[in-house]
Amino acid sequence: MEEYIVLIADVIESRKLNDRYLAQRKIISIIELFNEVYFDYLRKKVEISSGDSLQGIFKTLSAAFLYARAIQLFLYPIKLKIGIGLGVLDYFDESFSSNMLDGKAYHNAKKALDIISENKYHSHIYFEGNEQFDFLNSYIDLYDKTTENLSYKSQQVFLLSELLNPLSIDKSVHYIKYMNEEMKKLVLGDIQFVDNNKGMEIKEMNILNIVSHSNNEASKYKSTIERGIAVVIAELLGTSRQNIQRYLSKELAEERYYAIKLCKHLLEI
Fold first, then answer.
1. Is the Cβ–Cβ distance between 57 and 100 less than 8 Å?
2. Across the strands, what pairs with 80?
3. What is the mean pLDDT of residues 150-155?
4. Nearest Cα to Cα of residue 9 among 42, 41, 39, 52
5. Is residue 83 left, alpha or beta, with left meaning phi > 0 and alpha meaning psi from -120 to 50?
6. Does 252 score more than 60 pLDDT?
7. Which value, in Å, is the radius of gyration of the alpha carbons in the chain?
8. Measured distance CA(131)–CA(123) in Å, rounded
9. Measuring CA to CA, how many Å separate 261 from each of 139, 147, 210, 254?
């Protein structure tokens, strides 16, 4: 029987958010944006399944991971725990939303969330439903530690670099392409640009294609960071290239290096 890939995410400590209404609006807006960005990777679009939960069905494990990675970045400082389950469904109807379906894939995604909640793993992303996931989850646990203590400034640089140079499986992920002015204000509103118009004028530089990428551990920075991106971000933020380079070379390069390795492992399952 055909197996499906279900992603279920819960907002962490949602009741402690300063403004739950604004947080909910941001979550809904980002989900709508991502349903366009990741359209080619979705079997069923991601939807809110309850006030603090969202779920969808993906075509590949690597796409589900890239989505999980990116949505956490775009929703910051809102935090998510994300379970990704592999398994069969009781039934699949093209006219049904993801909220109307059920089966082993959903149960495995929920089990993954339970494991995260029980603090058996440090990571906020967990896979369930295949014996090969045991090694993968240990690796994700290490990957997650590359971003757990990022400063507020680091998160801003991280977000800008992803918009300018997104990770993609086959060059089909474009965030800025689908962002109107209102969406840009929502996503970039907390960033202190040197000029308020700079954020509205931001343009994609290039896409990092994971499939054709050569992951060189000896030169993580050169292999994962788009050439010239430090200059562009520095101009947007009104700071020096050297200052931005410090964030990129120490934190972002490592995160991207491990994210690419994880995606390549997932493509082989």
1. no
2. 11
3. 87
4. 52
5. beta
6. yes
7. 18
8. 18
9. 10, 16, 9, 11
